[in-house]
Design brief:
The chain has helices at residues 26-102, 107-113, 155-197, and strands at residues 6-11, 20-25, 208-211, 214-217, 224-227, 230-233, 239-241, 246-254, 258-266, 269-279, 286-287, 292-296, 306-313, 316-318. It is of the alpha+beta class. The chain has 2 domains: 78-197, no CATH class; 208-322, Glucose Permease (Domain IIA) (Distorted Sandwich). The model is unreliable at 131-150 (pLDDT under 50).
């Protein structure tokens, strides 16, 4: 079957009777059809490419806006981390000052030093009325920007985030360290509170000092001997109060001391109260600072109504004046 050599195109006008006839060679018709098809294909491809380019432009604009926003967030987080670091530095300084002013790390030395000085003369070791008292948890959050990884050219932003993440990790580690340090300090301070409550810092009775701690002439025979306590004189029946928290070890008559109370305050500290007229507490009883334990009297080997007050650290008598926080 042979191909058509020509194609006929008829043009018939609406109002006239003349018909126009055109003969088109077959090769020209087929070539025109192929050209039109090719042109349509090219146009379709260009349309798809234009759509893709426009979508990329929109996405790039969105990425730039996101990167700009993320840069602002990075700067905000940098400022916040700087503020937290400053706060952490102040907390560390505060923790160090707490350790210093509470003398936590030198507690044993405090008790040992009380009996390390040369023994005073009992006659000169009584404070006068004007004698000064010498013993007077941030948590920071970091938002990960996953969208920034979509822009491989923005190496500066990625670098800033890596630096920020590293800095945050260091800050988090430092925060955990300070938290542990403050927890340890809290436990030490709690124990220190108990330790301070056990120190006999108050006078056991109202009155005037008649004899201090140290070497003196004995009122019986005039021999030079050691006076291991502090004598506070007043009228019989004056209340004697515990100068610190503790547990009563002894509450009975004792040779030379008369009616006597001995209180264990813990940490190796004991206080003795002699020559009482009446004992208020019993052995094994817990007492608080300021609680009445006995009444002042003249029992035992005594020259007048007074309380003989002793402080002993690990069994050794020390000067009670060293503990008093009042004249």
């Amino acid at each position: 079957m042979s191909k058509n050599r020509f194609y006929t195109i008829l043009i018939i006008p609406e109002k006239t009777q003349q018909v126009r006839k055109f003969l088109i060679p077959g090769w020209l018709f087929r070539g025109s059809a192929a050209g039109i098809a090719f042109a349509l294909l090219i146009g379709f491809v260009m349309l798809l490419d234009y759509w893709y380019v426009m979508s990329q432009i929109g996405e790039n604009k969105q990425l730039k806006m996101e990167n700009r926003r993320l840069r602002q967030q990075v700067q905000v987080f940098k400022n916040k981390i700087t503020t937290v670091e400053s706060t952490m530095d102040r907390v560390k300084t505060f923790a160090t000052r707490l350790k210093v002013i509470t003398n936590i790390e030198d507690r044993s030395g405090l008790l040992q030093s009380l009996n390390s000085d040369k023994l005073p003369d009992a006659a000169t070791n009584i404070p006068g009325p004007d004698t000064p008292n010498e013993n007077q948890n941030t948590e920071a959050a970091l938002i990960a920007a996953q969208d920034s990884a979509r822009d491989p050219d923005d190496s500066g932003l990625k670098k800033e985030y890596l630096e920020l993440d590293e800095k945050f990790s260091e800050l988090n580690h430092s925060t955990l360290g300070v938290e542990q340090e403050l927890q340890d300090l809290y436990e030490l301070l709690s124990d220190q509170k108990s330790f301070l409550a056990a120190l006999p810092t108050k006078k056991p009775a109202i009155g005037y000092f008649t004899s201090g701690f140290g070497i003196r002439k004995s009122p019986y025979g005039g021999r030079i001997k050691m006076h291991e306590g502090l004598d506070i004189a007043n009228r019989p029946g004056t209340v004697i109060k515990s100068p610190a928290d503790g547990v009563v070890l002894f509450s009975d008559a004792k040779a030379g001391y008369g009616q006597t109370v001995i209180i264990d305050h813990g940490y190796g500290v004991e206080t003795w109260y002699g020559h009482a007229s009446k004992l208020i507490v019993t052995k094994g009883q817990k007492v608080r600072r300021g609680e009445t334990i006995a009444l002042l009297g003249n029992s035992g080997r005594s020259t007048g109504p007074h309380v003989h007050y002793e402080v002993r650290v690990r069994g050794l008598p020390v000067d009670p004046i060293s503990f008093l926080l009042e004249n």
